[in-house]
Input
Amino acid sequence: MKIVFNDSWKHINNYILWSRVSMVIYVVIPTYNERENIVELLDRLTNVLKNIGSRYKIIVIDDNSPDGTADVVRVWAEKNMEKDIEVIVRKGKEGLGSAILLGLKKALEDSEAKYFVTMDADLSHRPEDLLLMIKRAEEADVVQGSRYVEGGKIIGWGLHRHLISKVANALIRIIYRTGIRDNTSNYRVYNRRAAEALIKYADAKSYEWAIESILIPLACGLRIVESPIVFINRTRGKSKLSLGDIIHWWIHIIGFKKRFNEIKKSCAEINSSKPKVS
Output
C-alpha cells in the first residue's frame, strides 16, 4: 500500500521547531505479538519526534509476547543507538488499559514531561499525524485523534466495522453529551493535568480504556479538541479484539454512566476547594 502524506508536515514544522527544546514528550505503546509492525512504527515515530524538535521518551509495555516483540524493540534500540526507549515486559496478557496506565504512571515520574501520547502498535495510527496533534495540544488538555472530522478518514474497514464504530460513537455522544465526533480512537495526546486525572480515576483493564480515557477528562471539565488522523486497518498480524471484548465494550459504554457522574462530582469538589486567583 502506498501512503501519500499531504503538505501539513512542511507547514507545521515552521511552528514547532522554535518552542520544543525544553519539553519532553512521552509516547506509551502497549504491545502483544507486534514484531511484524513494531520496527516500522519505531522508525517512523522517532523520525517524527526528531522533527518536532523536542526531547522524547518512548515506553513500550509488552505483555510477554510469544513472538518476541520486546526483544525486537531492544535490538532496534541498540542498532539505532536509541537511548530514549524503555521496554517493560509484564508476566502475561493483562490488558490494554492496564498497560497504558502503567506507562502513564512511569512517564509522570518525570517532572519535565509535558505531553503524553497513547497509540497502537499495529500501524493503524500514523506517527505522521502526531505533528498536528502536538501543535493542537497547546490549546487543550486532551487532543483526540479523530477519524470523523475534516481531514480524517479510515482505510481498510468493511461495512460492519464502520457500523459498529458509528453506532458506538453516537451512543457515547448521546449518553455523555461529549460533543466529540470520535470518542473511541486510542490515538491521543494528554497534558500532565489530564494524565494525572486518568491515574486518579481510571480502572479499565482492557479495551474499555478507550472510552474511560476520554470520558474522565470530560467529567473533570478539561478541554478536549479533535485533530484529524488517517486510520489504516492493520495489514500485518492479527487483531487482538475478540467478540467477548466487543460485548464487554458495549456494556461498559452504558454502565460507566454512574462512575462518570461520581468523577464529575469529585472533580467539581476539588476545583471548588482550590484558592481563586484574582
Remarks:
- The mean pLDDT is 90.
- The chain has ten helices and nine strands.
- Residues 19 and 254 are 42 Å apart (CA to CA).
